[in-house]
Amino acid sequence: MDATMLMNLQETVQPWPNLPDSAIATAIFGQHSLIPIVEPTSPVLVEPDGTTMQRGTDIRFLRGLARRNGFDCYVQPEPLTGLDQGFFRARKLLGLPQAVLSVSFGTETNVQDFSVRYELAKPTAAAAVGLDVPTKSLQPVYAPAAVEAPLGQEPTLLREVPLPFADAVEPELPRSAELGRAVQALVDRSSWAVVAEGAVGLDVPVLRPGGIVNIRGLGRLYNGSYYVTRVRHTIAPGRYEQRFEAQRNAVGETGAEIYVAVP
């Protein structure tokens, strides 16, 4: 288990006045002796408009803040020092893949127990109407499409006809700019509807959440780049296994995928 287990033991009720979500994340990671890898955010609730309140465990609270900013929040060790880092940032979708995973690819197959699913009901557009505190007026916000870079040729939300639609509710955001960011984050998150799971062994480099893997052998729809969201390592005498989960927000190949292992 990682440090998130300890961050989920104690319920806390605490105000975080006049602080952006990124500063709150930095402070909570520091309380748990984690090195913060935090992307800056603008203030959400500033007096007299209101105060950000924590009601729950540290990790659940941070993941809630991350969701409304369109961020991921997780903990993993730094590869060279082994020191735990706390991540609170947007997904990094550019760069070389950590590994090339081959499914049903003859002698080059390096994935076992593989499955892939396409959650067709998940992608959605969203809208919300909030009361903008400074102007005392109703402020509608609408997010018709995801703005994150697609990891394939056809973004999942653009494949939906008719376009699904959700009413978003975020009562703690009194300003339309912050409400718009939260609604857009909801749409971006919904677009990650293709989920791959499987197990790999010693013939695959160590996989880390927050990186990209390229998967082949799945056919035209599912071949391509995936974003790693979870890895569980099993170490036993004579056996090492990585069970992973990875997601993508599109289907099809772009033509830029690299299917050669990176040393």
How many domain regions? 3
Strand order in the sheet with the most strands: 6-13-14-15-12-7
Uncertain spans, ≥5 residues at pLDDT below 50?
A: none
Number of helical runs? 3
Q: What is the SS-derived class?
A: alpha+beta
CATH topology of the largest domain: Phage tail protein beta-alpha-beta fold
- How helix-rich are the residues, as a percent range? 10-25%
Count the beta strands: 16
Indicate the mean pLDDT: 89
CATH class of the largest domain: Alpha Beta
Question: What separation lies between the terminal Cα atoms?
Answer: 28 Å
What is the H/E string? EHEEHEEEEEEEEHEEEEE
Largest sheet descriptor: 6 strands, mixed
CATH architecture classification of the largest domain: 3-Layer(bab) Sandwich
Explained architecture:
It is built from three helices and 16 strands. The chain has helices at 21-31, 58-69, 176-190; strands at 12-16, 35-38, 52-56, 72-77, 84-89, 99-102, 112-118, 125-132, 137-143, 154-155, 165-167, 194-200, 212-216, 224-236, 239-248, 250-251. With 263 residues, it is α+β, with helices and mostly antiparallel strands. The protein has three domains: 6-89, Phage tail protein beta-alpha-beta fold (3-Layer(bab) Sandwich); 99-118 and 193-251, Phage tail proteins - horseshoe like beta roll fold, CATH 2.30.300.10; 125-190, no CATH class. The strands form five sheets. Strands 6-13-14-15-12-7 form a six-stranded mixed sheet, with no helix packed on it. β8 (125-132) and β9 form a beta hairpin. It is flat, with a radius of gyration of 20 Å. The model has no long low-confidence stretch (mean pLDDT 89).
